[in-house]
Write a structure and sequence with these properties.
Layout lengths: L2 E5 L4 H12 L3 E8 L13 H16 L3 E5 L1 H17 L6 H20 L4 E3 L4 E7 L5 E7 L16 H5 L1 E2 L7 H10 L21 H6 L7 E5 L17 H9 L10 E6 L22 E7 L4 E6 L7 E8 L3 E3 L11 E7 L7 E8 L2 E11 L6 E6 L2 E7 L2
């Protein structure tokens, strides 16, 4: 009998994952990951992990499986929280959920599970795994989107490796959310009607500026509104000597200066804001809402533009440095000067967009068919063929 350690989070998805695995004949062990109890960075007065761990225990007892809580807060602080602070400080916007899966659930947690004698770990992610067998008995693991288009979470797993996938099961990947809730309800699982968790991975609901202010001190600066007709938006007829020259130009983010617009307000720190953000600017009197089109953490200036269609929000091309390219399918990795037609997304829940990958010596260009809104440094771009996630990278 194969042993599976399930990351029981106290939610309905992992509860049903554990139920299905037991029904399939696996020996199932439930582990709850406690990943936050740092009093130096206060999150809120609430303690969601206590309620979640209690629900996970009740589910484990109902299913008749062993259960324990493991404390991974030291690793979580070092690998996720400290990284987040460093990224925001230099003006990038990290994705803690992607990192959490790569560094905690499918690394630290996976190693603990294997030490307990497990053959696999399992989570309640809405995605699927398939195995492609080669002529010589080799196995290649494929990460596929979940059947439920509305809940597909493959993007959050875009940094997983072949080794991690080989030890991972996704029991609910073929189900929709309503089907998962129905199974939980039919089996009297306490989590059946529990709302999905919100906020930072494992930390819970918190206003990000409040969280960041614990370590990144407020620093007053100005908000500048940039009009939609400044010269750098009007050079679409430029001629290029090569495709690489065109891609380099198209991927460059605009560089703004105070004289490009007018000062319309003040802020408490450019490092609290991210591209595409609308809330928190507290500037009135404009015909359309202001959106952040760029942050300059060196000069502590936020540049904004009116309306969702402001040209400063849009770019067609992005770049990933060579050491930040990750292939889930190393067998499909591009060599220098090779290209690949894909569909890609730059954030969770974004519909997949047509794009072409261009590999150069120093990295990889992702050239979209249509311009994309709020391409943000520090976030992940993930690329797919049909419903298979092939790879990802950190946007430079």
């Amino acid at each position: 009998m194969k042993t599976v350690v399930v990351g029981l989070s106290g939610g309905v998805d992992s509860s049903v994952a554990a139920y299905l695995l037991k029904k399939q004949g696996y020996k199932v062990i439930g582990l709850f990951m406690k990943n936050w109890h740092d009093d130096s960075v206060t999150i809120s007065d609430e303690c969601p992990w206590l309620e979640d761990s209690n629900d996970a225990l009740i589910v484990a007892e109902k299913l008749g499986i062993p259960f324990q809580t493991i404390d991974l807060s030291t690793e979580y602080k070092e690998r996720i929280v400290d990284y987040m602070f460093r990224e925001y400080e230099i003006g990038r916007t990290p994705n803690p959920d992607v990192l959490c899966n790569r560094e905690i659930k499918f690394d630290v947690f996976l190693k603990i599970a294997l030490q307990l004698g497990a053959d696999y770990v399992a989570t309640g992610h809405y995605c699927r795994k398939a195995v492609q067998r080669g002529d010589e008995g080799t196995q290649t693991y494929r990460l596929l989107a979940g059947r439920d288009d509305n809940k597909d979470q493959s993007y959050f797993l875009c940094q997983l490796s072949q080794e991690q996938l080989s030890k991972t099961l996704f029991p609910i990947g073929e189900l929709t959310k309503p089907e998962v809730r129905k199974i939980a309800s039919e089996n009297d699982l306490v989590t059946a009607d529990k709302k999905d968790s919100q906020g930072l991975c494992f930390i819970g609901k918190v206003r990000l500026p409040d969280f960041l202010q614990q370590k990144l001190k407020p620093k007053k600066g100005v908000i500048v509104e940039v009009p939609a007709n400044i010269p750098q938006y009007l050079n679409s007829n430029r001629k290029f000597g090569s495709k690489e020259e065109e891609l380099e130009f198209m991927s460059e983010k605009p560089s703004y200066h105070l004289e490009d617009g007018k000062v319309v307000g003040e802020h408490q720190g450019a490092h609290y804001f991210t591209k595409g953000q609308r809330k928190g600017l507290d500037v009135g009197g404009t015909k359309e809402p202001l959106f952040v089109i760029e942050t300059d953490v060196e000069e502590n200036i936020i540049y904004t533009g009116q309306g969702k269609s402001h040209p400063g929000l849009y770019r067609r091309t992005l770049f990933v440095k060579d050491d930040e390219i990750h292939w889930i399918r190393p067998d499909l990795a591009l060599d220098t000067d090779e290209t690949m037609q894909v569909r890609a997304r730059i954030r969770y829940r974004q519909p997949l967009q047509e794009a072409i990958l261009y590999k150069i010596e120093s990295g990889l260009y992702v050239d979209f068919k249509e311009k994309q809104s709020a391409i943000t440094e520090g976030q992940f771009v993930a690329w797919y063929k049909d419903d298979e996630l092939l790879g990802s990278g950190v946007i430079s």
